[in-house]
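If your schedule permits, I should be very grateful for your opinion on a structural question. What I wish to show you is a protein chain and, alongside it, a tokenised description of its three-dimensional fold. Would you kindly read the sequence against the tokens and tell me how you understand this chain to fold? Here, with my thanks, is the record as I have it:

===
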Amino acid sequence: MTEFELIARFFTRPSTRAALGNGDDCALVAPSPGNVFAVTTDTLIEGRHFLPTIDPARLGRRAVHVNLSDLAAMGAAPRFALLSLTLPEINEPWIAAFAQGLWSALDAFDVELVGGNTTRGPLAIAITALGDVPPGAALRRSGATAGDELWVSGPLGDAGWALYSLLPDAAVPGGRRPVATQAQIDRYECPTARVALGQALRGLASSCIDISDGLLSEARHLATASGVSIDIEMAAIPTSIADCNRQPDAALAQQCVLATGDAYELLFTAPAWRREDVTHCLVAHGLQGACIGRVVAADARPTVRVLDAKSQAMSIAINGWDHFA
């Protein structure tokens, strides 16, 4: 099978919304009337962003949701995508399964694949996604103000817990792999982009970001962009991991909840007087989110604090994911 036969067989469909879809040097697309495009891209590299043992269908689904999560954080409605796929070889059963997972995720959000590229090399998947959003309604990182509440759209820590359960002991902080449930492994391998929630938060959230690199890292992005400080209440963070202060793997649990990425929940702020509206929004979307903190005025520079049950600042020495750390 040649490169072009591979594209035609696994990654080509007729376009219904694009002025020109897959097949030329470029696709021709336009946002819906009155909207602008929100554009994002992410690359997933084997051994860096996913394990070699992941099922290829799950990997195809994961690649889509990881990218659409960025659109969700902007309140955008996904419309088009491009795929760049680097393969060590043409393994038809693997590619067929990957394509099935990819298409199932794209179809779930009515997204058209309008182009991309294939080449030989270490396994890597790069997707560029485009979504519609009214220019004045896009959610941004820079709108949080003192007095706002900090919310998360769902439980945290599961993905990190599952990841560490799949790694060798030597690669786990503390040197011992935890035991993860299948549900937690599913959260890691099959994250769900909160696309519908992102659109529902237009006009409700004052700032928003998706949690791809860990709670603390993303909270710092919100604080820095908005010029505020943020206090996070450790006990208020929803998680399916046992009590971080009581279980034997407490340090690892804290690492997973606060610093490990791959959650793909939305972290957002909203005025305190909109608490009932936010709660109703989360319930309407079937999400187990929670208010986990508040926005306060920054003294000298924006900071993020984690508070214990007595509202005292905890000493936290961990950070979020950094590709070059």
The first strand starts at residue 36 and ends at 45. The domain at 148-307 is CATH 3.90.650.10 (Phosphoribosyl-aminoimidazole Synthetase; Chain A, domain 2). The mean pLDDT is 92.
